[in-house]
Design brief:
Helix 1 (about 15-35) packs parallel to helix 9. It is globular and about 50 Å long. With about 270 residues, it is of the alpha/beta class. It has a single domain, classed as Rossmann fold (3-Layer(aba) Sandwich). The longest helix is centred in the N-terminal third of the chain and has 25 residues, at about 15-35. It has helices at about 15-35, 55-60, 90, 115, 120-140, 155-165, 175-185, 185-200, 215-235, 245-250, 270, and strands spanning about 40-45, 70-75, 100-105, 145-150, 205-210.
Length: about 270
Amino acid sequence: MLKQVDLTRSLTKKAFANSLRFERQRLYDLEKMAFDAGLPSIIVFEGWDAAGKGTTIRELTRRLDPRGFKTYAIQAPRTDEMKMPWLWRFWMKIPRDGQMAIFDRSWYGRVLVERVEALTPIPDWIRAYEEINEFEQTLADDGCIFTKFWLHISREEQLRRFMLLSTDRAKAWQVSAEDWENHRKYDEYRAAVKDMLANTHTEHAPWTVVPATDMNYRQYAVLKVVIETLERALDVEPTQWPTFDELEAGTIISQPWVGDEGDRIPSRWDEEE
């Protein structure tokens, strides 16, 4: 999957701005529809350090109703979590019916950092592929919708971003010694990523590899995939997306429900308000 990614893909500021208003409104409406339908969803963000995971999540949730989603920034397990089965702490974060759970890193650390840094014995992280697939299959069978993203940048682009951050006094703290060490092991992590994508890309929980070199393209592509996934799950009229050439030419994405309160599907949230 990584070989097929065009890391040069980009979107001009004007083209991105033309699409952003629609994507935000459509996603907001779909969030409400999912809440009313009791449809739980999980959005997973994995990717290289400095690929833009946090920024992408911030933009994704900027116009959502905060009652409809929760975000989780996953770090190394704590002492009490290490006493439990390794997936236990993620089971404790699955969304309720109608809720959206957004993960900034996730259970895939088991087959990425824990593999590369030899934090987990080889038999255990190899077995984790099957355990992850069963975990996701169980949730999918219970009606949960999955969207999984790998934000991809090249080794050279990661180095460029690290250098820019490191020379900015206000942002230098964002690049740690651990980040530089991970950059040195880029090829080892890339091998782990390839195996992860090959072993956990399933029909019910597919991966989308997003070229993350250009911020505008990354954001547009992520929102588009989330919207399409929710539209299919809710069985509503799908968005008719223009081509990239049409976007660059100034075509504005428009649908009957955008900007017209009278055409929007009523929601229990509207009643509460």
